[in-house]
Write a structure and sequence with these properties.
The protein is α+β, with helices and mostly antiparallel strands and about 375 residues long. Helices cover about 55% and strands about 15% of the residues. It is built from eleven helices and nine strands.
């Protein structure tokens, strides 16, 4: 399959590259990393002013582009190791608001996202869930005109910088989504940094009282919408990994040209040339899988969408591990030094593997789909 971006998409990508080259080079990123949560309000505001926070939102609410444009943005975010909560707000939570929210909630929340005045995070994962989306023990009990939430959410991506959480909870067996502020009474938000410097949080919900307007949409089973949102976010995460791998490969090649041993650049050693060629192949194949995953997001075939996105994440995770580890190996002991960008790429690629389902989880999803198809074919034979 031949894939080419059009002129508008190319212009979007080039504009973002110029912006990050100016505002997010490696030394500036290290300064951002040293801040409280890695989030820089000025940069988030500039992303909004240039329209990057409208990517993928519904056109009725000022949105532009779709999953392909989101993929291009995420590649550049990966290339520059941007710490801003773009994945959680635009790729994960905004689609949930667009699909599940009432007209009033959409008009309010999506406009704030595009304007840069609202950052969202999905509080869904719980202890012992192991990436299972239907494992939710947080309870939602209706009492008159209010909802009362109790439970614990762990490892909320970008939770340390979120202005609002989308919290999943069970109401008489049904999975519903609620809008919860970190300042609501009964909410304890424990913020921390992950190994790659990103922001995360754990939430303790103790008798959190919410008005009925804080229920996202009209209730009902939100699991299908949650699955689709996670799939779109997984595809976006694959694109981020591709950008990070490209940058790690480039940094490794440049280092091999300048680092000398035995009187010549180490890049002349055939063994290292083969290793860097393998890194390039892995990154190229990962890009193909990222294109597949992001393209499948528009499919109405849930089985095909789930299978192909899981297959893409499994391969991208494998490629990310190989490229990250080999880039460190070529750099030698300096590969893990904070002063070199390659150590930061290694950390981010490692965390991408663990985010929204690791390689083993997605391989199991693919295997189960293949087995189910085989059983179906055998039954119909």
């Amino acid at each position: 399959m031949q894939f080419e971006i059009d002129a508008e998409q190319s212009s979007l990508q080039e504009s973002l590259q110029r912006f990050f080259a100016q505002e997010y080079d490696f030394e500036k990123r290290r300064a951002h990393l040293a801040s409280a949560h890695g989030h820089v309000p000025r940069i988030w505001r500039q992303l909004a002013e240039q329209g990057f926070l409208s990517i993928g939102l519904p056109e009725a609410h000022g949105g532009i582009g779709g999953q392909t444009e989101l993929m291009l943005v995420m590649e550049e975010i990966g290339r520059s190791l941007v710490l801003e909560p773009y994945l959680s707000t635009l790729a994960l939570c905004a689609p949930l608001v667009a699909e599940r929210g009432s007209q009033g909630q959409q008009a309010d929340l999506l406009a704030k996202i595009a304007a840069g005045s609202l950052k969202l995070a999905l509080a869904h994962t719980e202890t012992d869930a192991r990436y299972s989306l239907d494992f939710v023990q947080t309870s939602a009990r209706r009492s008159g005109n209010t909802w009362v939430l109790n439970g614990t959410k762990t490892t909320v991506l970008d939770g340390g910088t979120a202005d609002l959480f989308i919290v999943s909870a069970r109401d008489s067996g049904n999975l519903s989504l609620f809008l919860v502020s970190p300042d609501d009474a009964g909410v304890e938000c424990i913020r921390y940094r992950t190994q790659d410097g990103r922001s995360a949080a754990d939430l303790q919900l103790r008798d959190v009282s919410l008005t009925t307007g804080k229920l996202l949409g009209d209730g009902g089973d939100a699991l299908p919408a949650l699955e689709r949102a996670i799939e779109r976010a997984v595809a976006a995460l694959c694109a981020e990994a591709v950008g990070a791998m490209d940058a790690a490969n480039l940094a490794t090649i440049e280092y091999s040209k300048s680092r000398k041993q035995f009187g010549q650049p180490i890049g002349r050693f055939q063994a290292l040339q083969h290793r860097m060629a393998d890194m390039f192949v892995y990154a190229t194949q990962a890009r193909s899988m990222s294109l597949l995953a992001n393209g499948r997001c528009a499919s109405n075939d849930a089985r095909l969408r789930r299978h192909d996105i899981a297959a893409a994440k499994a391969y991208v995770a494998k490629a990310a591990r190989f490229v990250g580890q080999q880039s460190v190996q070529v750099h030698g002991g300096m590969g893990m030094a904070d002063e070199l960008a390659v150590s930061h790429y290694f950390k981010r690629l490692t965390m991408i593997n663990a985010s929204l389902g690791d390689c083993a989880h997605h391989l199991a999803t693919v295997s189960e789909a293949i087995l189910a198809d085989a059983r179906s074919a055998e039954a119909s034979a």
